[in-house]
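Case study 2.
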Amino acid sequence: MSVAETVGLDDVRRAALAGDGVIRPTPVLSSRSLSERCGGTIALKAENLQRTGSFKLRGALAKIAALGDGCSAGVVAASAGNHAQGVAYAARARGVACEVFMPVGAPIAKAEAAAALGAKVHLVGEAIEECLEAAHARAAEGLAFIHPFDDPDVVAGQGSLGLELVDDVPGLARIVVPVGGGGLASGVAIAVKSQLPDVEVIGVEVESCAPYVASRAAGEPVAIESRLTTIADGIAVKRPGELTYPLIQRWLDGMVAVAEDDVAEAMVWLMERAKLVVEGAGAVGVAALLGGKIEPSPRGTTAVVLSGGNVDAGLLAQVARRHESQAGRRLVVLTKVPDRPGALGRLLTVLGETGANLVDVEHVREGMDLHVRETAVQLVLETRGNDHAQDVLATLGAAGYDARVLR
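Prediction:
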């Protein structure tokens, strides 16, 4: 048996049974606005609404069930966040002790959530590879190791999401799914294409960390050396898995990579239009559609998997502010005024006449080329959009203020 035949439909169905009573079948939501914009019928598989906020619980439950008495001493995992929460929840549900190793820079919300679920959390190194080494060392002391993706039981467990797509999406023709380690994408593809071989499955990575795209281009597994911080930290895996690489090659119809800015815009689009909080890793499929990297199927429904919703509130706020600025609804302006009483008041009077809402104002006297009797003023304004923002700038210019927009 080849590695690509290690996991089959029967394995996925058995793994799905391991989640009975814990896994929440997540909804498939129609998206008229996304369908109209992209020119096809598109549905969103809201796995961000799964318990623990991601698909990872499926694979964790399947692995613990497969281990049986082999995990009586406890389980250990390495993760950037979602796998840690999934294993912690699964271990608690099955009465098993749990330890997880996470990078020092892992989102605070994810580390705290794993701890709240009863896991002992260790913060180790900067990358998932260092966490994997530490977790393997702990496993050598007697705990059962649960790999985040490169394990047949985990892949089969993630594939249970594909069984739901087959049951819940009439006319299913194309699936767009995030790819990190490849466990979700390969599991879903096996579950779906074993029953509906004509359905296309396309994986999506983020450009700053895309080892599968690089590997497909090279015709062999390629490890990448990315030192960039990505908004899609949940899929920031630098090396294809020994199991998942041949599975991806065998079962997926294509792979694309999307830009960081497109992922940020997709997160905001999902908040504004679909009323869903989705993390960067979970939003890459929508980013691929909005950015034109993937076209909807012309013959049926394209299902987009939103794989997770665990995002720090601070990052979410940054993404929203960035979008507001790009849309012209948030304007940051730097100008100069005489450094004497009444000068700021006159500037604000001019602004008041424009109808813009003043969010913040700050004097800037350091680090700028200013006359001794002059001060700079930084203004944060809310406007009604790009046209209104341009009107505000024009009004300031007409009143004698040299206003520079800060991005």
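The domain at 3-54+153-320 is CATH 3.40.50.1100 (Rossmann fold).
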